[in-house]
Amino acid sequence: MGSLVYDSRLSVPLDDRTLAHLQVVVLGKLRRRESFAFTATVDGREVGLWLGPSVALEFRYSERGRPAMNRAWLVLLADAASSRDGLVIVAEPVEVPAAAPIRRTAPVPIPAPATPARAPRPRRLPDVA
């Protein structure tokens, strides 16, 4: 059982799989300098937290390896974080087996835009006199 430590004062116990998915969503929002609410249950009580770029967060894992990411769950958590109610932990959906796992890869270079082709010049009309 891992935990999300908020401002060195509050520890929210979470299993490592949930914590890993929350870390991806939370860090994505904070990287964009977005603040948002997070609601969790601590010792049987509901706790509302405000997460922003200036709040110290620590993700503590109990296991060494990172679990595989479920793309569908990441989307659900990100949508919840962007809602007016803020981020809440929703149940993990069953991922479609055909979906590719999320892998960290090098960025793909974006080709430079092609210069637009010039329009052909209109033909000169013959002199009629």
Present the secondary structure layout:
Elements: E1 2-6, E2 10-14, H1 16-31, E3 36-42, E4 45-51, E5 57-60, H2 71-81, E6 87-88
Parallel strand pairs: 3-6
Antiparallel strand pairs: 1-2, 1-5, 3-4
Helix pairs in contact: 1-2
Written account of the structure:
By secondary structure, the chain is α+β, with helices and mostly antiparallel strands. The chain has two helices and six strands; from the N terminus they run E-E-H-E-E-E-H-E. The chain has helices at 16-31, 71-81; strands spanning 2-6, 10-14, 36-42, 45-51, 57-60, 87-88. The protein has a three-stranded antiparallel sheet with strand order 2-1-5. Strands 4-3-6 form a three-stranded mixed sheet. A hairpin with a 2-residue loop joins strand 3 and strand 4. Helix 1 (16-31) packs across helix 2. It is elongated, with a radius of gyration of 25 Å. It starts with a strand and ends in a 41-residue tail after the last strand.
